[in-house]
Amino acid sequence: MDRAVLLKIIEAGIHAPSGENCQPWRFEVRGDGELALYNIPERDDSLYSWGQRASYFAHGALLENMHIAALHYGFDARFVLFPEGHESDRVALIQFTGREPKAEPLFESIFKRTTNRKPYKKVDITDETKKWLTDGVADDGVKIILTTDKGAIKTVANAAASNERVIFENKLMHGFFFNHINWTKQEDDEKSIGFYIDTLELPPPVKVLFKLFRRWPVMRVLGVVGFPRFVALGNGQLYASGSLVGAIVIDDETPEHFVQAGMTAQRIWLNTTKLGLSFQPLAGLIYLFLRVKHGDLAAFEHRHIHLMQKGYTSMQKALGVENKTIAFMFRIGDGGEPTARATRLDINRFVGV
Ligand SMILES: Cc1cc2nc3c(=O)[nH]c(=O)nc-3n(C[C@H](O)[C@H](O)[C@H](O)COP(=O)(O)O)c2cc1C
């Protein structure tokens, strides 16, 4: 396989979403049309990364992009997940074989897809739209829930927003979040990892205040007067402006299932982009809760453990998936053009030859 084509397929891959835009991947070109994909565990050392599951989800999204790009350039891509078991950082072996190039309707959407955190205008989501959203999704053991039920949307939105309350009330989470904000375009271009402030779509007065909020003593005082609850309330309303809320549900929490959930979510996200609609993951609480569920409680106060449990259970109930694991949640609607987009690390940083 031509190296230039391989790099183009990898370029499509690294446009995938990842938690805090941490881009936890690197590649090894192995010759004979084979590529190894590795996780970089240090890239996500947050409380969201229990068992690297959030990164494995991101790897799934990356593989879905690569699969589509490979077809576009005339190759089939076959993946073997975790060929050396879960202890190894090798997430997949990718084998490319030549075939007729195929017009891939989602190829362009790989580069247009983005997280849109604006308030959304309501759009009419018909059964036909839902069918388009799940078009081409593989039937690989993950369950997709798409709901336009107002009550369910409100419940999910409020539960998801409790993530922000924990961010503003927990010193570790607060430090992590604010350390991952890039305050100017120049800083974002240099680091190419983390949240560029403009992608957070903060209203102007909040954007100014955010510099103050980054100081923990300020936040602690604001915590005493209930400010974080107020933030969560506002964000709950913002998330509920979505016309549809979706979830990817899995039976067990194996790394493979999170990769598959990532592939499925990415396909839905690309379909959403193609339809001209906006998409925002609402997944923070889910990944925090995964840690709580597995008894890793040291970083959290009792009130937050309770809040997360309550939020997660209310989401399960609203979506009718009691006792199942929610691997991803999102909202879809019409947010218009986002103010800014996340950057990517230079492709040459990922590829060892
Ligand atoms: C597992 C996972 C969880 C995420 N959770 C959230 C979330 O709760 N809220 C949010 O606004 N974005 C969330 N994101 C989106 C990332 O922040 C985003 O993909 C990244 O910053 C890159 O931006 P892009 O999607 O515009 O390319 C999540 C992404 C992944 C892969």
How would you sum up this structure, described in words?
The protein has 353 residues and is an alpha+beta fold. Strand 1 (25-29) and strand 2 form a beta hairpin. The chain is globular and about 60 Å long. The strands form three sheets. It has a five-stranded mixed sheet with strand order 3-4-2-1-11, covered by helices on one side. The chain has a four-stranded antiparallel sheet with strand order 5-8-10-9, with helices on both faces. The protein starts with a helix and ends with a strand. It folds into two domains: 3-112, 3-Layer(aba) Sandwich (NADH Oxidase), CATH 3.40.109; 127-333, NADH Oxidase (3-Layer(aba) Sandwich). It contains 13 helices and eleven strands. Flavin mononucleotide (FMN) binds next to helix 2 and strand 9. Residues 17-21, 54, 57-58, 114-115, 117, 280-284, 341-342 line the site of flavin mononucleotide (FMN).
Main sheet: strands, sense, barrel: 5 strands, mixed
> How many discrete structural domains?
2
Rg calc:
20 Å
Give the N-terminus to C-terminus distance in angstroms: 14 Å
Q: Predict the CATH topology of the largest domain.
A: NADH Oxidase
Bound small molecules, by name, code or SMILES, are:
flavin mononucleotide
Q: What share of the residues lie within helices?
A: 40-55%
